[in-house]
Write a structure and sequence with these properties.
single chain; alpha/beta; Jelly Rolls; Immunoglobulin-like; TIM Barrel; 4 domains; ten-stranded mixed β-sheet; six-stranded antiparallel β-sheet; 23 helices; 22% strand; globular; signal; Glycoside hydrolase family 2; Ig-like_GH2; Glyco_hydro_2_cat
């Protein structure tokens, strides 16, 4: 009896523990090739927990960053019935730090869910929900009620939760759709299929989410404009309740001055014994705004400002120059794109966010051009505190230039200026870049100047683009209404054309590439730089010569130069640092000394800050020869990072004899062979059916197919299987027993053997023009292995049916395939297939409508003329297919 009681108690204890462990969620970042040293500091309880909006601070706030429930579904679906994944907010879903690392496709939506209890005693106050940024379109619900929407991936937005709050637990739902480069909104350098100068997409919540308690009447914005000539600050305060009667605002500055004024009116605050802001001396004043009604305080916020002025004046040589605080100031800049290997758009920590600004200053630069991205508010706070001039790009319009795209771009400009207006570090707005979506340049340039007359406006950076000395983008009337003439010149610098009243700047140059093994985002590809891939010593020598040229151009009238770039970004290897910020390719003291020929060194004493945290020279491994690595292997070295690099090195040296051996040893050393980075590696180097890596993939195909890159890995395996199948295949397969062949290959290779033979069978029927059997086999493949057929192949299958039969039943099947293609990737080419299928089936009106949709997407595309011809035939009732069927 006692034994039974003990067994019962143990069973009960086990059940309780099982429930506890089932409910416990362990966040784990997804593996990637490289990561920065701050990645280890990310914790799921409180990521990026610093106050998110330094320009408008209140004490009553609470971060909602941390683990949220999430689910990816088709974009037309409603709230998911189950949330099976956890995501670490605010890291984008494609990032390693999110714990998900999946690409959000244009036809999908991600749903977020978070429960919270009201963190404050409201007692008549309001509760606001703030989002730093969500890419791209967000719909927010509280307790089942929609509370608002926001479109635009780079600016902040706020919703009032008060009306739908519950006393106990509350639930936030956020639905996010992000078509990235296949939509109509600004997406910067994010694309679904990254490569070269375009990078991994960054979808969903990617900046801090937080709650804030505010009074019924509260301050919504401060607009602070320094005027150093009059020694005063011009301030404007706005409330949520502009009809607030008897409300007075009091402004107090840290120098002790207090001034009262009216809501929504300019208030002049005298700044006696003024202390100006500059990179050499980034002095900031604290500023407090208090609202009083009938003598009682209603609301108060804390902010800050810097007294600085940026302008264009003639220098002593009579040439227009950039002046800071009425003194000539050469802008020696660097092009910072704001990407991170583990977080993509989101820095792992606040310390990391500040690091890029600090290290740029330590290198000797006094300016950062923030390229095609808007950063979180804390980045500009760090720039203000550290002392760095900022040229802020607007995120370029979608290059479709539809009415929707233009509207989204201009809305974003207004939101960006309002959001960042108070940052003293920002001295220049950059509107367009290298003609990416350029339109109405004069109107927009003049409009930006009207919105903000306190900064310079670069209407078009790189409107004239030179590559290897050749002008790639001529323009009939460049830089109209702008404050600058700006060229891009890769790799070597040059002078922009002179225009009266404008300063002459070099918006981009350089791009010197150096590959550092062990610090590559994609070690399977060679990467690139504008100058090709140099050795470290060559990079130093060329960079020195470039600065020598800039010294001469500066004397000739150049006011600013922007070097590409501070760190590598994905496959771009043209950074001064590696992408993980662990290795600097030009030693810090060397680049400081070189840059000091153009501007005084701003931060030489601070170099010790990072000397213990960063390699100041390239590691010896960079210089190691293939023979030396092979000798290390012979001497018994077998760690996984070495074996991976050795396999890649063997491939570069065309050592086909040893590649498979090294790859097999690498595979045997892996702790997580199912990770994307390892599957991508195996795709490249699994070359025959005799390797243990091949066997592993074939035996685990069902698990591998669930991984984003898994299907590509399985295709490699099927290619090897097909080689085996072709060796046993008869020349005449007319009477072949395909079912027997499938069973033979299944026994030998598992499900991939079956699929490989089915694909060969479908190809055989297609070549024989036996379209009914082709469709039958393809339909079976779709049913049993839906992930095995990509969008490109599915479109080709549908087109094969269109070209070869008029059978309505077969065409109807192909239309279903094509509908899926268009939904997943609405391109001009895929719309053309869909329209032709509809037309051949006799659905003329639907076909014309689909073809016109494809025509809109085909502007500037090589398929444009074909779509126009097919559309004309459809309208005339002429066949768009061959006459032999």
């Amino acid at each position: 009896m006692l034994v039974k009681k003990i067994q019962c108690l143990l069973g009960l204890l086990f059940s309780i523990l099982s429930v506890c462990f089932a409910q416990e969620v362990k966040w784990q970042k997804k593996p990637i090739t490289i990561e920065s040293r701050w990645s280890k500091d990310v914790v799921p309880d409180a990521p990026l927990s610093d106050y998110p909006r330094p320009q408008l601070q209140r004490p009553n706030w609470e971060s909602l960053n941390g683990l949220w429930d999430c689910s990816i579904v088709d974009d037309h679906e409603s709230v998911p019935s189950a949330f099976l994944d956890k995501i670490l907010v605010p890291y984008p879903i494609e990032s390693s730090l999110s714990g998900v690392k999946k690409t959000l496709m244009p036809y999908q939506a991600i749903w977020y869910r978070k429960s919270f209890k009201t963190p404050f005693q409201l007692n008549g106050r309001k509760l606001l929900l703030h989002f730093g940024a969500v890419d791209y379109q967000a719909t927010v619900y509280l307790n089942g009620k929609e509370i608002g929407q926001h479109s635009g991936g780079y600016t902040s937005f706020t919703f009032d939760l008060t009306k739908f709050l519950r006393k106990d637990s509350n639930e936030i739902l956020v639905k996010v759709i992000d078509p990235t480069d296949q939509g109509s909104g600004p997406h910067g350098k994010q694309v679904i299929r990254p490569g070269e100068i375009y990078y991994t997409s960054s979808s969903g919540i990617w900046q801090t989410v937080w709650l804030e308690s505010v009074p019924e009447t509260y301050i919504t914005s401060l607009r602070l404009t320094p005027d150093i000539d009059q020694k005063e600050l011009l301030a404007e305060v706005k409330l949520n309740d502009n009809g607030c009667k008897n409300c007075v605002v009091e402004l107090e500055v840290s120098n002790g001055v207090k001034v009262k004024g009216l809501i929504g009116h300019i208030i002049k605050v005298p700044i006696k014994e003024m202390h100006t802001w500059s990179p050499e001396d980034p002095y900031l004043y604290d500023c407090y705004a208090r609202i009083y009604r009938d003598g009682a305080e209603v609301d108060n916020v804390k902010s800050y400002f810097g007294m600085r002025k940026i302008s264009i004046l003639k220098g002593h040589d009579g040439k227009e120059r950039i002046f800071l605080n009425n003194k000539y100031y050469y802008n020696l800049g660097i092009l910072d794109q704001g990407y991170w290997p583990e977080g993509i758009y989101t820095a792992p920590t606040d310390e990391a966010l500040a690091f890029d600004i600090n290290i740029s200053k330590l290198m000797g630069f006094n300016t950062i051009r923030k390229h095609i991205k808007i950063e979180p508010a804390r980045w500009y706070y760090h720039a203000d505190k550290i002392g760095m001039l900022v040229w802020q790009d607007f995120v370029n319009p979608n290059q479709s230039l539809s009415t929707v795209a233009k509207s989204a771009f201009e809305r974003q400009i207004g939101e960006t200026i309002n959001q960042l207006y108070n940052a003293p570090s920002i001295v220049t707005w950059v509107i367009f870049n290298e003609k990416w979506g350029q339109y109405d340049q004069q109107r927009i340039t003049e409009w930006v100047k009207e919105m903000d007359s306190t900064r310079l406006v670069n209407g078009h950076s790189g409107e004239l683009l030179y590559v290897d000395g050749q002008l790639k983008s001529p323009s009939p009337n460049p830089y109209i209404s702008a404050d600058m003439t700006d060229v891009h010149s890769y790799p070597y610098p040059r002078l922009a054309p002179y225009q009266s009243g404008k300063v002459n700047v070099l918006g981009e140059f350089g791009g010197l590439g150096v590959s550092v093994q062990g610090h590559l985002w994609d070690d399977l590809n060679t990467g690139w730089g504008y100058s090709g891939i140099l050795s470290p010593n060559e990079m130093i020598d060329v960079y020195r010569k470039m600065i020598d040229t800039l010294v001469l151009l500066k004397e000739a009238g150049l006011s600013a130069s922007i070097y590409t770039q501070p760190y590598d970004v994905e496959s771009e290897l043209n950074g001064i640092m590696t992408y993980d910020r662990k290795v600097i390719k030009i030693p810090l003291d060397t680049i400081c000394r070189i840059n000091s020929r153009l501007v005084p060194n701003l931060a030489a004493p601070e170099m010790r800050m990072i000397s213990n945290n960063m390699s100041l020279d390239l590691p010896e491994a960079v210089y190691r020869t293939y023979t030396q690595n092979c000798n290390e292997y012979k001497n018994g070295r077998r760690d996984s990072s070495f074996l991976r690099a050795l396999t890649i090195h063997a491939n570069k040296e065309h050592d086909d004899i040893n590649i498979s051996k090294y790859c097999d040893d690498y595979f045997k050393s892996l702790q997580n062979p199912f990770s994307e980075i390892n599957l991508l590696f195996l795709q490249r180097f699994v070359r025959d059916a005799n390797s243990s890596a091949f066997t592993f993939i074939a035996e685990n195909s069902d698990s591998i197919r669930k991984i984003d890159v898994g299907e590509e890995t399985l295709k490699v395996v099927r290619g090897i299987i097909k080689s085996d199948f072709l060796s046993m295949k008869k020349d005449d397969m007319t009477q072949a027993d395909w079912d027997a062949l499938i069973e033979t290959m299944r026994r030998k290779y598992g499900s991939e053997g079956e699929l490989a033979v089915q694909e060969e069978r479908a190809l055989y029927y297609y070549l024989k023009k036996d379209i009914p059997r082709f469709v039958d086999v393809k339909s079976e493949i779709h049913r049993k292995y839906p992930k095995s057929i990509g969008v490109f192949d599915l479109n080709n299958d549908a087109w094969a049916v269109f070209e070869n039969t008029g059978n309505k039943e077969l065409l109807a099947t192909a239309i279903k395939w094509s509908e899926k293609v268009v939904r997943m990737e609405p391109t001009a080419n895929y719309y053309d297939t869909y329209a032709n299928l509809l037309y051949r089936l006799g659905k003329k009106d639907m076909a014309i409508q689909a073809q016109e949709a494809g025509l809109k997407l085909a502007v500037g595309n090589g398929i444009f003329e074909d779509i126009v011809k097919n559309l004309e035939k459809m309208k005339k009732g002429e066949p768009t297919w061959g006459t032999s069927q």
